Amino acid sequence: MVPKDKTASHRKVLAAAREEFMEYGYENASMRRIGQRAGMTAAGLYRHCRDKADLFSEIVLPSIQRIDDWLDAHISRSVRSVESNDVDLWKDSEIDMMRDLVYPNMEEYRLLLTRAQGSPYENFLHDLTEKHQNQMLQFLPLLQERGFTPRRIDPQELHLLLSAYTTALFEPVVHGYSQEDAFRCLETVEAFFLPGWKQVLGL
Questions:
Q1: 73/121 same-domain check
Q2: Which long-range contacts (CB under 8 A, 24 or more apart) does 111-117 make?
Q3: In this structure, are 81 and 35 located in the same domain?
Q4: 41 and 70 share a domain?
Q5: What range does the domain containing 153 cover?
Q6: Under a CB-based contact definition with an 8 Å cutoff, are residues 98 and 184 in contact?
Q7: Got the DSSP string for 35-55?
Q8: pTM to 2 decimals?
Q9: CATH number of the domain encompassing residue 30
Q10: Is 85 helix (H, G, I), strand (E, B) or coil?
């Protein structure tokens, strides 16, 4: 990837690319049109990026990294909580991630979820589920060591549950719900899924 350029012209290119990707999707987006939107020639555009994939990555990677960072911190907090026998400290969940991180940045994540076909990020939700599954499979034995009784669950079952949960969390983004409607739906998802997760984890 080309090193990040902080100039005003580069910000203009990113804004033009974001508009193009939202309108046409990654596969059908045109570098020629992006250049036109940014008011520059093709040669000028290619001074800011290698290609379309480079531009798309620069736009979506910060959104992906924020989620990755949140999940890593979440599992670390959960491990510390269990190790200190103070599960009351383990209060946050993916519900909080959506409320604090994703829904306030709905358009960023909608671009990632609905316009990435043909890019390396088209399977973002599946990849996110896989990461979460791997984290939980490492976490369950710790719960057992500390005297909890998590439900015996194999990776296939866990993947099924996490896929349903992740899909439900991100559906308001995919369908472009208003923030108000998204938060209302989040309350329903929380009421439905969290009691089940507590049973699975033996809490």
A1: yes
A2: 111/18, 111/21, 111/22, 111/59, 111/60, 112/60, 112/63, 112/64, 113/170, 113/173, 113/174, 114/25, 114/174, 115/21, 115/22, 115/25, 115/26, 116/25, 116/26, 116/56, 116/60, 117/25, 117/26, 117/27
A3: no
A4: no
A5: 59-201
A6: no
A7: HHHHT--HHHHTTT-SSHHHH
A8: 0.86
A9: 1.10.10.60
A10: coil
Token output for 174: 């995919």
| pLDDT, tens only, 93-152 | 899 999 999 999 999 999 999 999 999 999 999 999 999 999 888 888 888 888 888 888
User: 36 and 71 in one domain?
Assistant: no
Q: At what angle do helices 52-83 and 106-114 cross, to 10 degrees?
A: 110
Task: Phi first, then psi: give them for residue 33, nearest 5 degrees.
Answer: -70, -35
Buried residues in 100-117 as b, exposed as e (16+ CB within 10 A): ebbbeebebbbbbbebbe
The total domain count for the chain is: 2
